[in-house]
Write a structure and sequence with these properties.
heterotrimer, A alpha/beta, B alpha/beta, C alpha+beta, A: Ubiquitin-like (UB roll), de novo design (two linked rop proteins), about 10% strand, globular, C: alpha+beta, Arc Repressor Mutant, subunit A, Glutaredoxin, 3 domains, four-stranded mixed β-sheet, binds flavin mononucleotide, binds iron/sulfur cluster, binds FE2/S2 (inorganic) cluster
């Protein structure tokens, strides 16, 4: 699996350029040509068609085809487009980079998409903590207005649309699309029940709404400029184009790397000098998280799985948000799993009983074990509590809750127990963490 | 599917058995009708489903096989398979229960909810035997008082969203909300603000655990000690159905009954907690008569003898026309009937007025086709030209809010913004007099109303309902009589409801306790009304019977009332002390709510039974017995002395009640009574016993119906058809004519502002004053004034101003700046502290006041 | 008198125009309020309630859901140490312990001089610079105990003024004005787009049939 050097940088081409976030740089590097092309030479259906042809999979986590989602938008007098820039999945930091460093690309992708789906208004929901990103994105929007790319009769095409940058206020759950819409409506971020609240049917203010991720949007200008087919020519099978992987943990060079989908394996990404550059201090991989903390963990022997949505799914986990966390052999797995459990406990919205109460219970048990007060029976109890949140504790998960935050809670805890039961037992027997 | 007509029913397989369900029905409801109870906490049949507690998870077939779904959220679909009893379902439900319990305190023995707690019950029924939770539980500060009436114990809360949904959706009082996130989620008011909703007690009723408790009930009783009786609230004329729960002869709690046709389980706080007063030391419990200047306790025999002497003396000295009865709207039908017979037959006086507020007169009430509440909620258009519904008939506001969500169009006619304004499609800012005049002789107001009504209901008003009532308590009743009567003429097919709000005022009208009428809606020659009686009593010798009223608080012209009370010989028949008792010559203690049986009639004409749960306090007696004893004393044929017997006489003698039996009214067949006269359709729910839903109405012991089991349309013919001689006929009288001097009403008066008088739910009444906790909520009198006017007299918002009436009366009252007031008026809100009614002169078409600095 | 300063009130009213429904501005208005007062005071929440057409209890309830919104006073600098998994693997937990010792407050606490409020935060998407720290939502990392102390000292000395604005200031770039294209105009345009689309579809079908 050799990666050829000709693979274009589709979404990260401007990263590192001087003032990459300003309109000057953007225009100098082909910015807004795609918007002009779409608006003045293509019909909305033609744009949507190219996106469908590209088979762009959503980059927010669920990996649903963007074009297909658009086609499911219920016709209605008012339709909205909402861009999800809430990125809070632990160890995911690609959208953060895009928002801060190439906001115009997001704006352009959003405007093109608004045209394709006939949105009456577009909102970009940005995680509140991204203060710099909010400043740069708002500045980009201001510039785009001045340039004539947003507002009335854009580029003389007769198409008008407004775009609002909306700050979040710190709640992981608001990345979930229906919670995001609630939050955008000024409410507590409580996910809505699907059915019937599929955004494409009943979304923002009850109107049909498309929710897409920031990275998904960033791909749109390139697809319009180069055609969906060229995008689909990259990658393998359903996993087309390129994708940013956020590599974190015990590697020498943590960072965001845009690579062609499915052509590389996890091992390539970790070991190649232009990417991860190998494990820190030359240590061994003990386990790794292939797609955000909601994903079940992989063992070292799964390093050779290609970075493709379907291959990872087949192996029982997910590529999710594109974050990969490497853990070396000096890592306390109990502690890592506990910290992830703690994250879900803190971020559960509190609506559904199993998630609200289960997350707290699991966190407390995990903490007790890590701190040396565990009992052997706790392991079965933990697994059973996990089972009560997500029956079967399998992937893809079954759920007893409204959204999939609930069944994400067991992933790491169950992975840790299944893969490193002995390590738990050592904690229990020795009354403390052996790594301290 | 899209174009297919909605099928009449769909078929689902429930645990292997095919059942029929209604299209759109939730799985949980369909299963329940089929006899399968699915455990639940957050689901409430009267509120939007949220599907958050996850207790009701069941397996449902879908395109990708079976999955766990909340049965309280998912509607049935043709061919759907539902499994409620598999191991998977059981495990999920057990899991939820265990999760709910890990942080829930195990203080059931001291919890108010203990014994009627679904969490406790379901734990016993399905739960794990022993707790596997060894961690420390979540801790919150001790119970906090979120209002004078409601306490919150956050440790017990299971975040079911019922109280918050109720406050937001049902009551439109979102003064509580969830705060925090995750397992730190709590119910919270705004910091340092109270949950000041008129309906807060409902949250206590629907809280599935002991997180919300009512201060008046706290620690008073244990549910298993409670007995209960079905009854009807008598705080206003809506007549909410409720269960009176009692323990060892003491009323401990009122619980709303889920009656589709009246109150759908809700009560207002005034009604719910009114029992607080029953036990108070402000109760009148001994007969008293005046010896020289002192009242002394006497025996009933002596008190009745004194009354008899007065009646004989006045009759012989000044004629029967010197004897008058005021009030009675708080009495039972049987009591009213007995007193009317006493007055009009035994004594021979026609002076009887129960409509002390001077609301829409009986002549109009009888002459217009009456709507039922359900008809009003389902009307093509509802015209509300009434006193503020939330203040006068509180639960009607909840029903209207619900109906508006289902599509009811409301046209409001009101000079002031009211609680209805946000619900209304349109508000026409006219006074009742102006609208009536305009309808009579043409004008913009009439045209606007006609346009709004006709658009939905056509020229004849078919399907339109009018709710008419006294929007300004400074107005004479003729204004409202006139308005209703011209509306009925203009829209002959329209139906009417009236917001005269005293509990049994419509029963009193039906039974001839108003001028110009005899029992059974039989016309009699006109006679003086309460205001005229008072005027006469001020300068003629009169014997006044005050039947549960306080003329000083309820009638205008206070100075005149005082003179009348001083001049007249006064017999007070009441349950509570009030300002009129000071003037009494005889006081006869009256049994209070729950202490006597009988029936009451609500604003639709619905007759329901009152539950007797205890004996009268002290020496008090039921109204019908008091009437009977007076009758016997003056040698009249002794009337019947049991409510059943009196009712039998009423339905035997009066066509109005024909076909209705006392027993019928409490039967399973007519659990919510019957609307008289029969012959129209009687609305009834269900024929079986009411079913208990331990979640929706915790605490109901007897098997009551729960939930909107049948849609409104489930009307069935009343028993009228069974009655010999066919349907009874009570022919409506002709619409009366009123002369209203519209010019006098609207003519501006130089230097003065027209006074609009309104009331609030917590108005100072003797009963409220006798309720220790509720009385803290009594509204203060205030006058709302345009900011500019306030400024012009140098007064600030919240300071005292002096109002000077047309006849020179001066009242000091707190003023509030109100930007929303129309020009030329001030709004006086009756309440404690200042008596604004004294500014009104009886019989004047409009009241103007001068606002001056104090 | 409003709780918002006249300038903030104007910005608040501007924000309201950006959304089809007023309540949508609730969270942005909370950010504004914090920019003005550091935290959400009761009068500010009441004014937000009035502006967005909800009850104060709903503003409080909504705000309390979000980590960034504070209904109680916080320090001038909100120092958030990330201990989530990527940072944990690089010593985030130890860094937090160091921060607690160094600032003399436990996570969640505010230093006596009201300069710093220390928070343990979830992943701030700065994982390639783990362990990461955010100060008033401006990011620093990777940090050691030493460089953390150095950062604190510099913040105290005012050396980061300009880079790290006073707490509560989410963004120093504001939208220049309200919505430029009114919704009804857009809707009319969308109707036209839909019509044209239907026409194209019909034409395409007709062409197909013709062949
Ligand atoms: C708990 C949870 C958190 C999520 N967080 C994010 C997020 O931060 N950013 C994001 O784009 N999608 C997130 N998602 C996925 C969104 O719900 C949604 O699928 C996505 O925004 C759709 O965009 P896409 O189709 O372009 O990927 C989250 C989902 C869940 C269940
Ligand atoms: S207080 Fe009671 S009704 Fe309200 S959410 Fe908690 S458990 Fe439910
Ligand atoms: S989720 Fe159905 S009753 Fe609570």
């Amino acid at each position: 699996m050799e990666q050829t050097n000709q693979v274009p940088k589709i979404v990260t081409s401007r990263i590192g350029l001087e003032e990459s976030w300003g309109i000057k740089t953007y225009l100098a590097t082909g910015g807004y040509t795609a918007l002009r092309k779409a608006l003045t030479t293509m019909t909305p259906e033609q744009v949507a068609d190219e996106v469908s042809k590209s088979n762009l999979l959503g980059r927010g986590g669920a990996g649903f085809e963007v074009g297909r989602k658009w086609s499911m938008l219920k016709p209605g007098p008012v339709r909205y487009l909402v861009v999800n820039g809430d990125e809070s999945e632990p160890a995911t930091f690609k959208d953060h980079m895009l928002i801060e460093n190439d906001p115009h690309q997001i704006v352009e992708g959003t405007l093109i998409s608004a045209y394709a789906v006939g949105a009456a208004r577009a909102f970009i929901f940005v995680r509140g903590e991204f203060a710099l990103g909010l400043e740069r994105l708002q500045a980009a929007v201001n510039e785009a207005y001045a340039y004539g790319a947003i507002g009335r009769n854009i580029f003389g095409s007769g198409f008008s649309v407004d775009l609002v940058v909306h700050p979040g206020a710190g709640a992981y759950i608001c990345g979930e699309e229906t919670a995001l819409l609630e939050s955008l409506e000024g409410k507590r971020g409580f996910p809505r029940i699907k059915p019937p609240y599929f955004p494409a049917v009943i979304g923002l203010y009850g109107e049909p709404t498309i929710v897409n991720n920031v990275e998904s949007m960033s791909n749109i200008p390139w697809i319009v400029n180069n055609g969906g087919a060229s995008f689909a020519a990259l990658g393998v099978g359903r996993s087309t184009g390129t994708r940013i992987f956020a590599l974190a943990g015990h590697v020498n060079r943590p960072g965001n790397y845009e690579v062609e989908m499915a052509k590389l394996t996890f091992r390539d990404l970790v070991e190649r000098p232009e990417y991860g550059g190998g494990m820190r201090l030359g240590r061994q991989v003990k386990a790794f998280i292939p797609g955000g903390v909601s994903a079940p963990w992989f063992a070292p022997d799964q390093l050779d799985i290609p970075l493709s949505q379907d291959d990872v799914a087949k192996a029982g986990s997910m590529l999710g948000s594109g974050s990969i966390v490497m853990m070396d052999d000096h890592t306390c797995m109990v502690r890592a799993a506990w910290r992830i459990a703690k994250f879900f406990w803190r971020e559960s919205c509190g609506q559904c009983t199993p998630c609200r109460e289960g997350s707290g219970w699991i966190e407390k048990m995990m903490r007790r074990i890590e701190q040396g007060a565990g009992r052997e029976a706790d392991l079965d109890l933990l697994m059973d509590a996990c089972d009560n949140i997500s029956p079967g504790v399998a992937w893809p998960p079954q759920q007893t809750t409204i959204c999939v935050l609930g069944p994400s809670i067991p992933s790491s805890v169950a992975s840790a127990i299944r893969m490193f039961r002995d390590e738990f037992l050592v904690h229990i027997k020795e009354g403390g963490c052996p790594y301290e | 599917m899209s174009n297919a007509e909605t099928p009449a029913s769909v078929h689902i397989t429930l645990d292997g058995v095919e059942i029929e369900a209604k299209p759109g029905e939730l799985i949980i409801e369909a299963a329940e009708r089929a006899g399968t109870f699915i455990p639940r906490f957050c689901y409430h049949p009267r509120m939007r489903s949220v599907g958050v507690c996850r207790m009701c998870l069941v397996e449902v077939s879908g395109p990708r096989g079976f999955s766990l779904q909340p049965s309280c959220y998912l509607p049935v679909a043709e061919g759907m398979q539902v499994v409620t009893k598999s191991d998977k379902v059981k495990k999920a439900q057990d899991g939820v229960l265990e999760f709910l319990l890990i942080n829930h305190p195990l203080d059931c023995p001291v919890c108010d909810k203990g014994g009627e707690c679904p969490l406790q019950d379901q734990t016993l029924a399905y739960g794990p035997g022993e707790s596997r939770f060894v961690e420390e539980k979540r801790h919150w500060e001790k119970p906090i008082e979120i209002s004078k009436l409601v306490l919150l114990d956050r440790e017990r809360c299971i975040q079911c969203d019922r109280c918050t949904r109720f406050a937001d959706e049902v009551a439109r009082d979102a003064f509580i909300d969830f705060a925090g996130r995750g397992d730190n989620t709590e119910i919270s008011t705004f910091p340092d603000r109270e949950f000041t909703s008129y309906f807060s007690g409902n949250t206590v009723q629907i809280c599935p655990v002991g997180a919300l408790t009512a201060r008046p009930y706290r620690f008073k009783a244990r549910p298993w000690d409670l007995e209960e009786a079905e009854s009807t609230c008598t705080q206003c004329s809506l007549g909410c159905r409720m269960a009176v729960q009692f323990s060892r002869g003491e009323v401990t709690r009122f619980v709303g009954i889920d009656s589709d046709v009246v109150n759908t389980s809700w009560l207002c706080d005034l009604g719910r907690f009114s029992y607080e007063a029953l036990d108070s030391d402000k109760r009148l419990v001994e007969p008293k008569v005046r010896y020289r200047s002192e009242m002394a306790d006497v025996s009933w025999r002596d008190a009745i003898a004194r009354v008899g002497t007065h009646i004989r003396n006045f009759t012989s000295g000044h004629g029967a026309g010197s004897i008058a009865f005021l009030g009675g709207a708080g009495f039972t039908n049987e009591g009213i009937y007995s007193f009317v017979k006493l007055a009009k037959t035994a004594i021979g006086t026609s002076l009887f007025d129960a409509d002390i507020d001077g609301g829409v007169p009986a002549s109009v009430v009888f002459a217009t086709p009456r709507a039922t509440l359900v008809e009003a909620l389902e009307a093509k258009v509802l015209v509300v030209a009434s006193s503020d519904v939330r203040e006068e008939l509180p639960v009607l506001f909840l029903r209207l809010n619900e109906a508006v969500k289902k599509g009811l169009r409301i046209i409001e006619v009101s000079e002031l913004e009211t609680s209805i304004s946000p619900l209304a499609t349109e508000r026409l800012p006219f006074s009742a007099a102006r609208l009536a005049a305009s309808l009579r002789s043409g004008g913009a107001a009439a045209e606007r109303l006609a346009a709004a009504v006709n658009a939905s209901a056509g020229d004849a008003g078919e399907g339109a309902v009018f709710l008419v009532g006294k929007s300004n308590f400074a107005d004479p009743s003729a204004v409202y009589g006139s308005l209703a009567s011209v509306c009925s003429k203009k829209w002959p097919a329209a139906k009417f409801l009236f917001s005269n709000s005293r509990a049994n005022i419509f029963g009193a009208m039906d039974l001839g306790a108003v001028p110009g009428w005899l029992p059974g809606r039989v016309a009699a020659p006109a006679s003086d009304d309460a205001r005229e009686i008072i005027a006469r009593a001020a300068d003629e010798p009169m014997l006044l019977f005050l039947l549960g009223v306080d003329p000083l608080a309820d009638l205008p012209d206070t100075a005149l009332v005082k003179a009348a009370l001083e001049n007249a010989t006064v017999v007070v028949i009441d349950s509570f002390e009030n300002s009129a008792t000071d003037y009494a010559d005889v006081i006869l203690p009256l049994a209070a709510f729950g202490e006597s049986a009988g029936t009451t009639t609500n604003f639709e004409g619905r007759v329901t039974r009152l539950g007797q749960v205890t004996v009268p306090k002290g020496q008090a007696k039921p109204d019908y017995l008091i009437a009977a004893e007076i009758a016997r004393e003056i040698g009249a044929p002794s009337g019947r002395t049991a409510p059943e017997a009196i009712f039998a006489e009423m339905s035997g003698e009066l066509a109005l009640y024909r076909g209705v039996s006392y027993a019928d009214l409490a039967s399973n067949r007519y659990p919510d009574g019957l609307v008289v006269p029969l012959g129209r359709k009687a609305i009834s729910i269900g024929s079986g016993p009411r079913k208990l839903d331990p979640i929706a109405t915790p605490g109901l012991i007897a098997p009551y119906h729960q939930g909107p089991a049948k849609p409104f349309a489930s009307e069935e013919a009343g028993p009228a058809t069974k009655v010999d001689g066919g349907a009874p006929s009570v022919s409506a009288p002709n619409l009366p004519e009123f002369t209203v001097d519209a010019a006098a009403v609207s003519a501006p008066v130089e230097g003065r502002l027209r006074l609009l008088l309104t009331r609030r739910m917590y108005r100072p009444t003797p009963q409220l004053a006798a309720a220790p906790i509720l009385s803290q909520l009594t509204a203060q009198a205030e006058v709302r004034v345009a900011p500019a006017t306030l400024e012009s007299i140098g007064a600030a918002d919240g300071s005292e101003v002096k109002l000077t009436g047309d006849h020179g009366v001066e009242v000091l009252v707190v003023a509030r700046a109100d930007k929303a007031l129309p020009e030329g008026v001030v709004q006086g809100r009756l309440g404690k502290g200042a008596n604004l009614l004294q500014l009104v002169r009886s019989g004047s078409w409009a009241t103007h006041v001068k606002v001056g600095s104090n | 008198m409003g709780a918002f300063s006249p300038e903030m009130r104007e910005r608040a009213e501007n924000l309201l125009t950006l959304y089809p429904k007023r309540r949508s501005a609730l969270i942005p208005l909370c950010h504004l309020a914090q920019e003005q007062a550091g935290h959400l005071t009761s009068p500010l929440m009441e004014e937000i309630a009035e502006l967005t057409g909800v009850t104060p209890a709903e503003v409080y309830g909504t705000a309390s859901f979000y980590d960034m919104l504070h209904t109680e006073q916080v320090g001038k600098f909100l120092v958030g140490v990330c201990t989530n998994v990527a940072c944990l693997l690089q010593g985030g937990g130890e860094l937090l312990e160091h921060a607690e010792a160094s600032l003399g407050v436990a996570a969640g606490g505010t230093t006596e001089d009201e300069m710093f409020t220390l928070e343990e935060v979830e992943c701030v998407a700065h994982c390639d610079k783990a362990p990461a720290v955010q100060v008033n939502y401006r990011f620093f990392g990777p940090l050691t105990g030493e460089s953390f102390d150095d950062l604190i000292a510099k913040l105290r000395a005012g050396e980061y003024d300009g880079v790290v604005p006073p707490h509560g200031t989410l963004t120093r770039v504001t939208r220049e004005n309200g919505i430029e294209v009114p919704l009804d105009e857009v809707l009319a345009e969308r109707k036209e787009m839909d019509r044209a689309k239907a026409e194209r579809k019909a034409a395409a079908e007709a062409a197909k049939e013709g062949n």
